[in-house]
Specification:
This protein has 312 residues and is an alpha/beta fold. Helix content is 33%, strand content 16%. It has 9 helices and 9 strands. A 7-stranded parallel sheet has the order 1-2-3-4-5-6-8. The longest helix is centred in the C-terminal third of the chain and has 14 residues. The radius of gyration is 19 Å and the shape is globular.
Length: 312
């Protein structure tokens, strides 16, 4: 079977679980974060939309179990009938999913991992929302089923971090990674390509920083402009597909081969997307990226499938 020319999530899942897993996007019901509610800031990050980066999550109900069943219905058409019972990643996606009392988190996270078809619990959060009791909870759950924690770093450039209203410093991020890994939890880092004022070198430096903290995975995300965000009100000029492809490949070339690449692009909610409009055609974007990878000298001799859409 052909492989992508980097350490892809597909390859990791096959090596670790022997099969493909499908993500079920869930709502924790928390619905905010410290730089939205005034604890550290207001308005959130300049690019964050009304759903807190959870445009594809299920609607919040009182039951995580019911959300799981609804989410399974949404992805069932993507599942290839290989004779195996489908397995899933329970993904708490929107806003900051550890920004709540530990007792509440234990209830919803345990309900998710108790589903027999869930193989992984994945939790998106901020590094400044991981008190010791929450870290210990995640460590305990990780002994039942694998736990992935996704941390929104976005950039290692402290100047850019201030501009985008991130509201935590790199030392906070480094401590969160260290504490999670000490408990055996898998750490996946979110990085945005195309933040205002950043050069290609700045973005490659963020990749090298992610290497240095020994992250387990990375999600590389195009900066896109959504309606109602602070970014929409600014004179931001988004990257072209050609520019994004060039920077992305430079980032992957500088990424440690031990880091699993969970995503190489991102598609915002089409109802809210302002720009760049090319990002809405995910299949074309992925094909363009992989075709360029194949043509570059650094990937010569590596055969792989061009048409290979990612798992959300």
């Amino acid at each position: 079977m052909n492989e992508k020319p980097y350490n892809s999530l597909d390859l990791y899942l096959k090596k670790t679980f022997g099969r493909k897993l499908y993500k079920l996007a869930l709502e924790s019901g928390i619905g905010t974060c410290p730089n939205r509610d005034g604890t550290k800031g207001v308005g959130g990050c300049i690019f964050c939309g009304e759903s807190g980066s959870g445009d594809f999550a299920a609607e919040k109900t009182d039951s995580v179990t019911l959300q799981l069943e609804r989410a399974k219905e949404l992805v069932k058409n993507k599942i290839k009938d290989d004779g195996k019972t489908p397995c899933y990643i329970a993904y708490f996606q929107s806003f900051t999913n550890t920004y709540a009392p530990t007792g509440y988190l234990e209830k919803i996270f345990t309900e998710a991992i108790n589903d027999s078809s869930v193989a992984v619990l994945s939790v998106a959060t901020r590094p400044d929302c991981l008190p010791v009791e929450t870290l210990d909870l995640l460590g305990r759950l990780n002994k039942i089923k694998p736990v992935w924690v996704e941390l929104g770093l976005q950039t290692s450039n402290e100047r850019t971090a201030g501009y985008i209203n991130r509201c935590f410093d790199n030392a906070c991020f480094e401590n969160a990674v260290r504490e999670l890994k000490n408990r055996g939890v898998t750490v996946i880092v979110h990085m945005i390509i195309g933040l205002p004022g950043e050069t290609k070198d700045d973005m490659i430096n963020t990749v090298k920083y992610i290497n240095s903290v020994r992250a387990d995975g990375i999600k590389l995300q195009l900066l896109h402009v959504l309606k109602g965000t602070r970014l929409e009100r600014e004179s931001y000029v988004p990257l072209t597909l050609s520019e994004y492809t060039d920077i992305l490949i430079g980032c992957i070339e500088n990424l440690s081969p031990d880091v699993t690449v969970h995503r190489i692009t991102g598609d915002g909610n089409k109802r809210l997307l302002v720009s760049p409009l090319w990002s809405a055609d995910k299949k074309t974007v992925l094909n363009t990226i992989h075709r360029e990878m194949k043509e570059r000298n650094s990937y010569q001799g590596k055969e792989f499938t061009v048409d290979c859409p990612e798992t959300r």
